[in-house]
Design goal:
Elements (H helix, E strand, L loop, with lengths): L1 H6 L2 E3 L2 E3 L6 E5 L6 E6 L3 H20 L2 H17 L1 H12 L3 H21 L6 E3 L6 E9 L2 E5 L5 H14 L3 E5 L6 H13 L7 E3 L4 H4 L2 H4 L5 E5 L2 H13 L3 E5 L4 E5 L5 H13 L9 E7 L3 H13 L19 H16 L3 E4 L3 E2 L2 E2 L2 E4 L16 E7 L2 H9 L3 E2 L2 E4 L3 H9 L7 E2 L15 E2 L2 E2 L5 H7 E9 L8
Helix pairs in contact: 3-5, 4-5, 5-6, 6-7, 11-12
């Protein structure tokens, strides 16, 4: 496992090094428990080193021609394409993702690299008319400086890349803190790609550490002007509060509790396909996953029968086996938490139409129905292969159920009438809704983000430019101003 030991290190100021902390983060394969790497954590001192390096190099990088910056991103894309198999295997080993999941993640990451190539040339200045005679108003769009990126375990290569690549393309420096469960795929692997692409040393840094070691140093440090965080709403709430106190911008991609709604005129077979994918892709460890599947009462029996048949056919096992549909959840804690959650729902009166077993970190699919309308499980995020089937009486009832959650990230509605679907989608309190499709989507040029507890801000396309740049007004008085004093 030299791949993981080589990249499972701190990357600070262009150097691969061992952290100065007093303990190690152990990187495990969640399927077989194999130790992939031991990473000595970075300290507060190294947080400062990383940010200061990025700050120092960023000033020259911002002055570099956007065409030169674009060339680095182009080389990073070519390297990613050349190493696609290696990256996919790393996703399988470190995350427990299946081949389907690994290929899907790498494919989307490449699309976001292509977006970053384009973004390098987008920022433009403006000349704005002034009511004052002889005055010229110039509005410049500049990089913010240094961006801190805190990434999750579930799509670490993609989610990290979709902040890192455009931030660099727009002239910023970056410091990454990957999730402790995915230090290589979410950190070292990305640093290596950009190092080999010729990125100036020090501009991109990776800190593998934990809040137990550094506290809030990563988000309190004076250098970063933007913190891009993806993870739970519990941690995101804290990140948002701290960044606001220090007058930083926070881009928060947080938890979800998406509903996939099947209206009475839907194509049932197609809706079943969308629901199975939306709930069980990457073992359900996806913020956009369809936690709740809402079905019109008139289609309830036929949909449930077909859905259960599809779920029973899903294979749980070794993620390296191409026939496997569901690999392991990320760790033992998550596996146990899912078991507890299911038991609580059963104690509340839910019925298990399918009750999957838990064997180590392998959690087989569970399908629950008959939940009381006030059940907490209906309103929270479920990060695992547990589906909730809920019948509804009419559209108004479906809207009430779909909106009855503190989250609002994604969702989907299935109907034979597209415009009916659009009207329905407009009534759902989410940042994203998909008509006649699944709930799990991310496209490079479409604003991505949530409402309510699902986050703040947007990424992708113009939203990314807004997130990682700032505007500066410079006025020029070509004549002479007349001052009243």
């Amino acid at each position: 496992m030299s791949f993981f030991t080589d990249l499972g290190r701190q990357y600070i100021d262009g150097e691969w090094r061992t952290g100065n902390g007093s303990w190690d983060i152990i990187d495990f394969n969640p399927y077989n428990g194999e130790k992939l790497a031991a990473v000595t954590v970075a300290t507060r001192f190294e947080v400062d080193e990383a940010y200061r390096a990025a700050e120092r190099v960023q000033k020259d990088w911002a002055e570099t021609s956007p065409y030169a910056r674009r060339a680095v991103i182009e080389r990073a894309l070519r390297i990613t394409e050349e190493r696609e198999d290696e990256i996919a295997e790393a996703i399988i080993d470190e995350l427990g993702g299946t081949w389907l999941k690994a290929r899907y993640e790498v494919h989307l990451a490449k699309e976001f690299l292509r977006e970053a190539i384009h973004l390098a040339l987008i920022p433009e200045g403006r000349i704005i008319a002034s009511p004052t005679a002889g005055k010229e108003n110039r509005l410049y769009r500049n990089p913010v400086g240094v961006v801190g990126v805190i990434s999750p375990f579930n799509f670490p290569f993609l989610v990290t890349m979709k902040s890192v690549a455009p931030a660099l393309a727009l002239g910023n420096g970056v410091v990454i803190k990957p999730n402790q469960n995915t230090p290589v795929v979410g950190g070292g692997l990305i640093a290596k790609i950009f190092e080999d692409a010729g990125l100036p040393p020090g501009l991109l840094n990776v800190l593998i550490t934990d809040i137990a070691e550094i506290g809030d140093a990563l988000i309190e440090h004076p250098v970063p002007k933007v913190i891009s965080f993806a993870g739970s709403d519990r941690v995101g709430r804290h990140v948002g509060a701290v960044t606001a106190t220090h007058f930083k911008k926070a881009i928060l991609e947080l938890s979800g509790n998406s509903a996939l709604v099947v209206l009475d005129d839907a194509d049932v077979d197609y809706a079943v396909d969308a629901a199975v994918f939306s709930r069980f892709v990457y073992q359900g460890q996806v913020c956009m996953a369809a936690n709740r599947i809402l079905v019109d009462r008139s289609l309830w029996e036929v949909f449930t029968e077909k859905f259960l048949a599809r779920v029973r056919a899903l294979k749980t096992g070794d993620p390296r086996d191409p026939e496997t549909d569901l690999g392991p959840v990320i760790n033992e804690f998550q596996a146990e938490a899912l078991g507890t959650l299911v038991q609580q729902a059963l104690d509340e009166g839910a019925t298990a139409l399918i009750h999957g077993r838990t064997i180590g970190n392998l959690v087989e699919p569970t399908v629950l129905t008959g939940l009381p309308s006030d059940s907490p499980i209906l309103r929270q995020e479920i990060f695992g292969p547990v589906a909730l089937l809920v019948p509804f009486e009419d559209e108004a009832h479906a809207v009430r159920i779909a909106n009855d959650t503190p989250y609002g990230l994604s969702g989907a509605v299935h109907t034979g009438d597209v415009e009916r679907g659009v009207r329905f989608a407009k009534r759902i309190e989410t940042g994203m809704m998909h008509v006649n499709d699944g709930t799990v989507h991310d496209e490079p040029f479409v604003a991505f983000g949530g409402e309510k507890y699902s986050g703040l801000g947007r990424l992708n396309g113009d939203a990314t430019v807004e997130a990682f740049t700032t505007q500066k007004w410079i006025s020029v008085q070509h004549g002479r101003s007349h001052f009243p004093l």
